[in-house]
Every structure is written in structure tokens, then in C-alpha cells.
């Protein structure tokens, strides 16, 4: 607590509020997630929030530039506080911002970073289980990072039974909707497929209002699951028979998409979880190796409401960098010439 | 094997050499001889195991708790941090991490059943929880030898019936410090090596064909043999842990 200067609330997460703060030690701007201790009457106190424990244990092991970094953890009063690197906006803000035009190269850039983050999770045997645009955060430099690991779990552990009630409903894989208790990384890939579609459509692809409605929406978009396209589906605990419905061809919906993009999304949204493409395979898909190159993260669009602020922050960082460089040059030239640096170069701070 | 061991904090930060482990319980050494300290440290492994059994937790959670307990006392001492409270808290925390959560209230109640002199309450455990987390540097994922056992056994040609004996040997290994020193696959092979000796089966040929450091495997099995001998000797004096505990001027004892 004493290590940070609080600068106000910036949001509310699933299990606590998030504040912006500056680390006194090095001036780094951070986001501090305070985990509320909820005491339900009549129930005994269960100590540190279970989701917080999950998030701590997983993020402590996962370090990747497309996964939000957990910098510090501290306790204050009876709350646990998780300190993250500061992120600036999320993908949902981008999708909903009508002033932004997403070019195919931008979408490719988001997809690449998203899949790299997911691949890091999966190769560490971690399922995210709650991928959605507002869990995909963007850094000042435009890097996309996965956040909110409160639902994440290690898989491959002996108790393979998971709760089917993970993942926000729009992005929920059909095997979860049918109540499968044993599932794998393919549930995250389904969510990635839905996000891919949403980036192209600029509106949620399968916005179900309930689990049944979600399944109905899936069927009307992708056809009806049956033993042919998904062996074993009829044996799932909550399997429901839907009337046979032909799928809507992707090409019809995503009119501007390239053949490679269509091929990739169709492999992400396969009914059979075992046939769905993996994150590593997806990264090697022709979509990423042909056509336009993914946009550099720094050139990705910024939501209008934050644009001037972000550009200003970037300028400041650049300025600091330049000053640092000049200082480095003067100290090195000092070392070689042995001349006192005080009246060598004066750095005038520029007005931003 | 679950998760990527080679990139884990367990592999990169928590495999320690013997000198580092010798630094454990530094302050307690003013009150106990090295043998007495060893006796007491082993005793708390049994305490955690018994409590885990009483709470019907998975063995994995119990083993994780024992590793937490050992890691905790690398920098702390019994005189400063009451070992029974830390033992219970480690188990409570590991039940969350290993996704078989139990209640703090249950933990303190069961512990009281097993040890009538235990007067800590649920609140003491909850207060202690974050402190334990901090002392563990928030590194919570522990890798265990259990998962690789069936695969190794199948591959070594030992029959699957021997898994029970070897599984027991692996559980016993947590009372030694091998879990702090060697990666879980080395511990697994060390336990299999010892198990094959107990079962009078020769697997030397198989071991020699593996690309592993035989010296380490031999050291694991030696640690285990030492542990069994030490426990055989100390079992003649079952009340010794209570006596040793009483010798320690523990702060804030309840």
C-alpha cells in the first residue's frame, strides 16, 4: 500500500475494483486490482478469494508479452491486491467505436497477438476459459494482452472434471453448452473464432440470451451438430436435438474476408472439439503468411475517447527515452574525454 | 505431465542445493541439536499427512502442503512461527491451489481432534494465510512425481501391481528434502529404483538406458533409506516431538 500512490478507480472487475496508481519506487504506472472479501451471512469465511488464488498461481508461472504481467501482490487490511502492468483500452472498446475502421491488416494483428497469448497458455497447460473482447487489453504500445485469469485452470490434472459453467455465454463452445465435464484447449479456440467473427462483423457473432438460445444461434449460423460432424455429441449430458438446419456459408456473412481468413475461422468453429484447430496450428495457417502483413501494434487504431490521451502519453515516453539517450551519450563521452558534463549539453524539456 | 515443468518457478527458482536447505530453521538451532531438529521437522510432515487424511483431501494436496511447509521454513524458524499453525495453513492453502477446497473452520476443528493442545482458530488460519503466501513468494504450483509413475512403470517392465508399493515410497519421500532438491521425474525414478529393490526386481538395465543422471537417482534412494532408518530409530520414542516442541520458546503460542 505504501509503495503506491493511488490515482482513482478505473474499473470494476469480476471480483473487485481496479485502481490506477503509480509505484513510488520507479514511477511506473500500474493497475491495482483489489479483491473483495465477500462474507456471505451464515457461511464461514473462506479466506483469500479462490479466483484470486487461481489468478496468482497461474500468472506467477505464465510470463509472455501477450499476457498481462502480474508485477506485485500485497495485502492491505483483509484485502489482497494484485498489481498489474497498466493497460489502456480493451478490444471491446475498439469493436464498439464506430469512428474506427478495422482494416484486414489490423484484424490480422489482433488475431496474431491473441493466438500467441493463447498458445502460451495452452503450452503451459492452462485454459483461459473466459475469453471475450473486454478481457483482451491493449497496452500503451498497442500490444494485445490476455487478462482476467480468475476462471483459468490447469488441465491434465487428475481431476479432469470441470464445471461446464465457465466462459461468457456469447463465446461459449458448444461442448460446454451441452454440459461436457471434460474439455480442453479447444474451448478457448471456439471463443477465439467468435472474436475473429466479431472483429469482422463489428457486432457479437452469436449473441445468445440464454444457453438454449445460444445453441439455437449456433445451429442457425453453423448448422446442426450431429454424429456425423461431431462424433459422440449425442452422449453429452445436456444434449438436445435441434431441427436440422443448413449452415450459413461463411463467405455470405463475411463478404470482405479472404479465402484464407474464411478457412481459418471455419477451422476454429468446428463442432467437433477434437477436430478444431489448435493455437499453434492456427499461427502457422496461411492466413498469417499470405496477403497483407499484420499492422504494427503501435499503428493499431485507438478508441476516440482515449486517443489524445494515449498519443500524449506516448509522446512523453518518447521524450523520456530521448533524454535518457542524451544522458547516456554525455556520460559515455565523459568517459572517453574526461570533460565535466555539466555545461556540455542542456536538455530543454519540450512542451507537449 | 501436467504443465510445463521446465519453464516453471518450481524448476527455475525452487530446486535448491543442500547448503540452502541447511539454512532452514536457523533460529531453532540454538535450542535443538541437528538430530532433534530433523526429528521435529519430520514430525510435522506426519502431522500434515494425518490432517490431510482426516480431511479426506487428495494426496496431491497433502504433498503440496508439505512442500509449502518446507519452503516456508527455509527462511523462518519454529520459534517465530508456530509450526502447527503453519502446517494447518499450508494444507488449507494447498486445498485451494489443488482445487479440492476445504474450509478453514474444518481445518482447525479436525486439527483440534488430532491434537487436543491445538488452540488456534479459523481466524488464526485466515490471518496466517497471506503471510504464508508471501513467504512462498506466491509460487504455488508444485510438480509431483505421481503423474509420471504409471508411464515409467509400464516402460520399465515392472508389473502395474507394484505401483502401490512405489506410490507409498513416493508419499514417504515427502518426509525427506528430495522434493526441494530434485525435479519430480528424478524423485519418481529414485522411488522406482528403491521400490524395485524392495520387490527384488532388477531394473538396472532399464535405468542405464535412460538419459538421466544415475548419481541423482541413487542419491534420492539413499535419502529415503536414511529416512526409513531414522524413523525406525525414533519410533522407539514416540513422545519425543512433544518434548522437543516444549523446548522451543515459541512466540505468541496459544
TrEMBL record, chain A:
Location (main, coarse): nucleus
Biological process terms in GO annotation: cell division; positive regulation of transcription by RNA polymerase II; regulation of cell cycle
Binding site for ATP: 10-18, 33-34
Enzyme kind, highest EC tier: transferase
Organism: Dictyostelium purpureum
Ranges annotated as spanning the membrane: none
Annotated protein name in UniProt: [RNA-polymerase]-subunit kinase
Family: Belongs to the protein kinase superfamily. CMGC Ser/Thr protein kinase family. CDC2/CDKX subfamily.
Residue span(s) of domain Protein kinase: 4-288
Region (Disordered): 330-352
EC numbers, comma separated: 2.7.11.23
UniProt-listed Pfam families: Pkinase
Tagged with keyword DNA damage: no
Active site positions, chain numbering: 130 (proton acceptor)
UniProt feature, compositional bias: Low complexity: 330-344
Gene Ontology molecular function, alphabetical: ATP binding; cyclin-dependent protein serine/threonine kinase activity; RNA polymerase II CTD heptapeptide repeat kinase activity
Entry-linked Gene3D superfamilies: Phosphorylase Kinase, domain 1, Transferase(Phosphotransferase) domain 1
Localization terms from the record: Nucleus
Alphabetized SMART domains for the sequence: S_TKc (SM00220)
CC annotations in GO: cytoplasm; nucleus; transcription factor TFIIK complex
PROSITE patterns, alphabetized: PROTEIN_KINASE_ATP, PROTEIN_KINASE_DOM, PROTEIN_KINASE_ST
Keywords: ATP-binding, Cell cycle, Cell division, Kinase, Nucleotide-binding, Nucleus, Phosphoprotein, Serine/threonine-protein kinase, Transferase
From TrEMBL, chain B:
Gene Ontology cellular component list: mediator complex; nucleus
InterPro entries from the UniProt entry: Cyclin-like_dom (IPR013763), Cyclin-like_sf (IPR036915), Cyclin/Ssn8 (IPR043198), Cyclin_N (IPR006671)
Predominant subcellular localization, coarse grouping: nucleus
Record keyword Ligase present: no
Keyword Iron: no
Subcellular location: Nucleus
GO MF annotation: an example: cyclin-dependent protein serine/threonine kinase regulator activity
Domain Cyclin-like: 46-134, 147-226
Pfam families: Cyclin_N (PF00134)
Domain of life: Eukaryota
One Gene Ontology biological process: positive regulation of transcription by RNA polymerase II
Family: Belongs to the cyclin family. Cyclin C subfamily.
Protein name: Cyclin-like domain-containing protein
Organism: Dictyostelium purpureum (Slime mold)
Lineage, highest ranks first: Eukaryota, Amoebozoa, Evosea, Eumycetozoa, Dictyostelia
